[in-house]
Each structure stands twice: as structure tokens, then as C-alpha cells.
Amino acid sequence: MTPGTQGTEPAKLGAGVLRLLGLMSGSSADGIDAALLECGSEGRPVFLGHRHHPYPASLQGRIVAANALQDLETAAQLERELGLEHARFAAACLADWGRVDAIAVHGQTIRHRPRHEPAFTIQLSAAPDLAVATGLTVVHDFRRADVAAGGQGAPLVPPFQQALFAAERTRLFLNIGGIANLTVLPGRADGGPLAAWDCGPGNALLDAAVVLLSGGQQRYDADGAWARQGEIRTEVLANWLSWDYFRRPPPKSTGREDFSAELVRSLWRDWPFRAADFLATLTALTVESIATSLESWAAPAEGLWVFGGGADNAFLMALLANRLPHLPLYKGTPEGGLPHLAVEAAAFAWLGDRCLRGVALDLHEVTGQRQPVVLGTILPGNNWPELLAKLRYMGENP
Questions:
Q1: 207, 248, 270, 383: most buried by Cβ count inside 10 Å?
Q2: Would the pTM count as exceeding 0.90?
């Protein structure tokens, strides 16, 4: 992969390359990550830049609370506010990086119910505001087609990881956002299918506990410093690890519906020990659920690469290394070039490219879908005729 320089405009592209801006706001709801990619006809992307835009604390609080919303008017207002926030950030990115062919935006998940009948997932979409503000075509709504095909709707990053990081031996990738998810990337010499699933909580419970215990003065435990002062209460931890989600085999996905701020409040009401012990034990819950998931369902691998905000929690990473002493642990991505905080935004830029080219993705072993489907919905912008002509040319000249 060829890294670019953040804030500089890359060279002009050839007719066979799409340039995409990916925007991602994940389950931590801490802000928006942007990644700039070039994608050639063979689908291998070149990373060009990454930026992060933090949400104001009040907006983050409303996003987290939206998981329990029943009020359609409040949800609609929040969607417009998120759309305008995305549009302002996208405009700033374009001012630094120059024009792109399309924007791919994940949207903000506020409800994810893959086990309901029928299953559903809801992302508040920033697509209309992005299209109007930038004049560009926007690809969005990536998860619902997978759900319609019988899948969990998540995780969707693994095929992007396979396009970039497939090697001779099996590799493991761990994203620690609000939710933690694992990818088993089969090696060319090992065989086996691409597989992935959500392990359980990443930062979601820990962040909610920090907000609760600090009276809203802190949003997360920087570097795990507060949790590091506590003692892991192993008896309580063992009880938490008996929760149903941890025993369920893949394919599986989860969200704040299972690991919520309300759950944290209920656990804290019954907590007899120090606040630091509470944070230490919640951190250990993330680590142990990851390790147990690896031991139960992952193939032997040459290493585990960790990305997402949790990779910056030194206490969590130290616990994980101690728990998995025989598995090499790396922060970031193999071969460098893609920052650990940019992976998901880059993945959705790539998924936007796949959608625009009409490529169906087979995620049977990842999400449980019954058939390959094209992921994403296209909202044509002012540049749609130009983009359509470019796509037609690329189809005739692969």
C-alpha cells in the first residue's frame, strides 16, 4: 500500500481509477474519521490521507442516548444535525485534498437488531446533506442489503482487509471500537474461509462507566490510567463472562442494545468495591471476551493486529498481551501505511467503490448472508452524469 501525505492533494487520476472519500462514525460515537482512497479496477486501494473530527460532548451524549429512542421527531432532528456535521467536515477534507469522484458514508448506527424477526439495523444517514453540500454522489446505507440477504449486517470491514492484507499465513485482525470485532484472514498456504464476528464490548461499557463515575467530566479513560489503579475482581468478571452473548457462536454481531450505558448503571448500583476496580474489571471483560473468542473460534495465526481507539489504551493492550502470550500482538496494520484509526473509514470508501462498480460481496462466513449482494445505496449528486460516464468507460476498459 502506498501512503500519501495528509493535507496534500494527490496527483491527477487516470480514467480507470476512482477517488473516494470514506466517512465513518462508529459505535464509540466519539467523532467522524475520514479516509481518502484511490481504487483501481482490480479493487486494490491506495491510501492517501486520514483526518478525525471529534463530536462535541453534548452531541456524543445524544447519539449514545439515541439507542433507546422511541421518538421519531427527536431521531429525525438528530439525523439532520449529524448530516450537517458530516457535511462541514467533508467540505474541510475536500478543501485540503481536492475533489473526489464520490463520498462513501457509513452513517451513525442507533439500533442494531440482527436477532429480531425480522432482523433490522438503523443508521442515521448523512447522505442528503453531503450530496447537497458537496454536489457529489454519495454511497450510503451499506448494512441493510446484507440483512435483507439473511446476514447480520456486520461486520463489513473484513473483505477490505482481505483485499489489502492477505498473506501466505493466516492473520488475525482486531478492531476495538465501541464494540470489539475479530477477522480471521486465511493465508494462501493455509486455506479456509474469510470469517469475522463481534466478540462483545470494546470501549462501550468502559466509556459509559467513565462518564458515569466522573459526572460527565471525562468521556473515556485516557491510556487506561484510571483503570490501572484498580484491582480486577475475578469473581465478578467470571459472572459477567457467563452472559449469553459470549457463548453464542459466530456469525454474530452486537451493539449498544446488548452493551449499553443502562447496563453499566445497573452493574454500578450493585458494585461493592472502588470505582477504579469497576473500570479495571470492565477493561478485563473486554480483554477476556476477546481472548476467549479467539481461543474458541479462530484458526492458528501468525499474529494479531489491533486497530481502533482501543489500541491506544495501554492498560487494555498490556492485559491483552499478557492474556495471549504465545500470539504476537501488533498495534496498527501489517506493512504500515494505513493508520490504525483510519481502517474503518478506508474500508467504507472501498465498499463505496465496490458498490459503484456493482460488485456483489460474498460474506456467507462473515455475516451469515444466504447469497452475495451489492452493499450500499447510491444517491446521485451533481457529478452523477460525469461519474456514470467514467464508470461506463471503466467497464469497457478494465
A1: 207
A2: yes
